[in-house]
Amino acid sequence: MKPRISRSILHFAAALALVFFGCSPVAKTPPAQNPAEPVSPPGLETPAGSEYEGRATKARTEAEGIRGTPRISSTTDVPAAESRVRGSSGDGAQAARVKAGTHDDNEEYPSWVMFSSRKWLLPMVLPAAYHGRTVLRVTDSAGAPVMAQSYTVEGTDHAPLWRGLTYANGETVLFPSVFLSDQATPASVVCHLSNGQEIRVPWRPSLDGFITVQLDAPRRSPRRIPVDVAFVLDATGSMGDEIQQLRDVLFSIHSRLLNAARNADIRFGLVVYRDRGDAEPLRVVPFTANVDSFQLALESVNASGGGDTPEDVHIGLRAALKDLAWRDGSIRNAFLIADAPPHTDYGQDYDYLWASRTANSMGIRINTVGASGLDQSGEHAFRQISVATYGQFIFLTYGETGESSGTGSITDPGRVSHHTGANWSARRLDDIVVDLVRRDIAYQTEVPKLVTDNPPPVDQHDHLAVRMENLWQQIQRQLAAFSSDTLTAVLLPFESTLDDSSHLEAYLRDISTETLLRLGSVRMVERDRLAQIIAEQSLSVVAAIEPSRAIELGHLLNSRVVFFGKIYRLGTDRVVHVRAVETETGQIVAAARVRV
Asked: Do 432 and 100 form a contact (C-beta atoms < 8 A)?
């Protein structure tokens, strides 16, 4: 939270808020850090929602007297509250001004490793090493993602090192240096099936860091898809605008999610936290499917308290993980919305690294939202949380382009620290929330029910150009780590599993060629030369793009690297996956995957 200031300045700031929506940035002087002692990985605990937990979560109901049951404050504007419950957007003009950008550190993993290694000395940031990431992917017999699949990572003696659940896309991210003890060496992954059987595969990640387990039966699709969405909200004094924004768009979020999938069973839950010494440091609103009652509970939340820069984020995260009753087999999303970093000097044994490990083991995706005033310490801590839980870092924007230190100056109008590159676009915050949850729903729905028609590639040029530049920048960084030489490379036609995607494939290939030439990191073999070789060798295009032919093509084209690309669909997302194969050994030396 931003420090409190005088009443006259507050009046002036309130007037400015009519023109500029958001909290005014105020200089912060972070206290000296006294990091909490490291805690043991929670992966050895019983993960909520897994078969190890049994039926414990069933015993808890929404009728339980969880502490902090919401009350309607006498200061609540009842007519405004009722209008939002009936579906009105409240002050829609003001809400519409709030735009945000998103960043997925798992999608840009090499950049995250470099960023995180530079930021350990920031105050209120806990040290953690994120190298060696492995992605576990579980599919059914038809290749569909299996959600909430219980698994165990075992050591060489079959001792359990980590237990967890997969996310809605059938995947999870595992960071051995963060999740496991220093002495632990993973040897195998065991998937525990509902019939009591087990499937064990060796811990042998592919060159692009994936371990895939395919089950021998189709997944079970529930008639109604349970979706639990929790908001973890900093309610200190500077968060009034953000709280109002959530009030204004909640009904719209709920309606749009239902419209996306009529068989979704959606519940909202809320955790409100402040800081030690505040009048109400914690409040928990249990999950409910009644959006009207949840809206009224949200109306009773008032921004107050705080004073120093960090807040007690840890108590809010702990309540979200331990006090909310997440349903077995549900899609689980949490949105942490705050403008201040965590207090890491309270000596709590449930710090934000503990929370990220626990959420990962429970299959809860935490998307962190940086509000106006979030500094570099807060950015780093929030990105540590989201990357370890397969979530995204979301930052409110104020007209800036590219990166920002959150100074709110003429040259840097951004008020939220975000060092995430320039390849992002500003969108309405509620659109981002809806898209992230809807994407998870799509993974568990028959694809035709949720897939919408895509406009022609030429009409998506700006979006496609940004996403493909993102992909090739990742490839470029990995190639630079592989060799300091300027490598000769050939880009093959993209393989596609999408219907009628020839125009998209050609468009993405053209954008890729332009991007690679602009980046200048490789010398490209001319496309005509590739076509000539394919014709001379009597190869079909399909045969030419087989990775097994990389060495042969490399010799024929005098190329050190061959780029193989594939376009396919994950839920509602179109995905491009590119691998760079070194032609002397046939090994993958770079890989990246982005949504387009």
From this structure: yes
What DSSP state is assigned to residue 415? -
Q: What is the DSSP letter of 145?
A: B
**Domains in the chain, ordered, with CATH?**
134-214 (2.60.40.1120), 222-393+425-450 (3.40.50.410), 451-595 (3.40.50.10610)
Contact 138, 506 (CB under 8 A): no
Residue 510, both tokens? 């053209």
The crossing angle, in degrees rounded to 10, of helices 109-118 and 376-388 is 140
Supply the pTM of this predicted model.
Answer: 0.74
Distance of CA 41 to the CA centre of its chain: 21
Q: Is 45 a residue whose pLDDT tops 50?
A: no
Q: With a cut of 70, say whether residue 383 has pLDDT above it.
A: yes
pLDDT in tens, 124-166: 899 999 989 999 999 999 889 999 999 999 999 999 999 999 9
What's the CA gap between 278 and 295, in Å, rounded? 24
Contacts of 316 (CB under 8 A, 6+ apart): 232, 233, 234, 271, 272, 273, 282, 336
Q: Using alpha carbons, list the distances in angstroms from residue 363 to 151, 181, 254, 387.
A: 11, 21, 22, 13
Residue whose structure tokens are 């909290």 = 23
208-233 mean pLDDT: 92
Q: How far apart are CA 325 and CA 440, in angstroms?
A: 19
- E runs forming strands in 468-539: 487-491, 495-496, 522-524
| Alpha carbon distances (Å) from 504 to 21, 328, 530, 540, 545 | 39, 39, 20, 20, 17
Token code pair at residue 509: 């290939």
Q: Name the amino acid, one letter, at 480.
A: A
What are 443-481's pLDDT values in tens digits?
A: 888 653 444 445 566 566 677 888 888 888 888 888 888
C-beta of residue 23 within 8 angstroms of C-beta of residue 370? no
